[in-house]
Amino acid sequence: MTAVATTLDAYILTGQSLAGGVAEAVSTAVVPFRQAWMLAGGPIFRTDSPLNGTLVPLAENRVETLCSAFAEQRLADNGRPLVIIGAAAGGKAYHGLKKDGESGVYQHILEQIRLLEGSGHTIRYRALLIVHGETDGYLGTADYEHKLAQWRHDFEHDIAQISGRPQNLPLFTCQTASAAGYACAAPNRHQFTTPFAQLRAGLQPMTTLVCPKYAFDYLDHAHPDAALGGKAAAE
């Protein structure tokens, strides 16, 4: 196996079910570029998943996430060795996934960061990737764009505390397209708040709205098929 590079660009993926993967993986083969890594058992963990800190070649694990396609694109763009970490929990609004949220997702990611920092490699935290918004849309969360900003700020602060280095962590997210699934009656769809909140978030510093998800084929009212991994990651 190729030795892990001394310096790794790190990307953090979190959110609800689409971040963790739903559709069967298109492929579970190792990413066909060298120097794409994950923690053993990843790439994206549930909070009950154990961690051992071993870096292994990046590959999907049963279900398709954004990770493999994203890694291929980043390596094609800049060739820098990378590691992708993260955790997710289906159906959770922001308050369940945020710092000290009841899901434990945020805390699990901090444990992954501690393992990276103890790995003997130089870790450069490049971006926070958030695939989220369906549940907050259903709940009608009014200030979701501010919650995204707080999410980014909390990770930036806590990674700095763990690493001992100041961080400048941009956030990339995509726009939900599930209003018709959650608010079936057309007159009520304006109550599904997150698509416009995500649009506003994309106008904030350090936040990029990558793409809307209505362009993809869907398995059901909320979950695009596995092709999303390639298409959205390539954006």
Compact overview of the structure:
This protein is α/β, with parallel strands linked by helices and 235 residues long. Helices cover 34% and strands 19% of the residues.
Q: Overview of this structure, please?
A:
- There is one protein chain.
- With 235 residues, this protein is an alpha/beta fold.
- It is 34% helix and 19% strand.
- The protein is built from 9 helices and 7 strands, in the order βαββαβααβααβααβα.
- The protein has helices spanning 17-20, 67-78, 94-97, 105-117, 134-139, 144-163, 179-182, 194-201, 227-234; strands at residues 7-15, 36-39, 55-57, 82-88, 122-131, 171-175, 207-212.
- α2 runs parallel beside α9 (227-234), α4 packs parallel to α6 and α6 (144-163) packs across α8 (194-201).
- The longest helix is centred in the middle third of the chain and has 20 residues, at 144-163.
- The mean pLDDT is 86.
Element-by-element helix/strand order? EHEEHEHHEHHEHHEH
Q: Kindly, what is the distance between the CA atoms of the first and last residues, rounded to a whole number of angstroms? A: 30 Å
What can be said about the biggest beta sheet? 7 strands, mixed
Estimate what percentage of residues fall within beta strands.
15-25%
Please identify the structural class as seen in this structure: alpha/beta
Mean pLDDT: 86
Q: What is the tally of beta strands?
A: 7
The low-confidence runs, each spanning 5 or more residues with pLDDT under 50, are none
Q: Give the overall silhouette.
A: globular
**Amount of helix:** 25-40%
Radius of gyration in whole Å, from Cα?
17 Å
Sequence of strands across the biggest β-sheet? 3-2-4-1-5-6-7
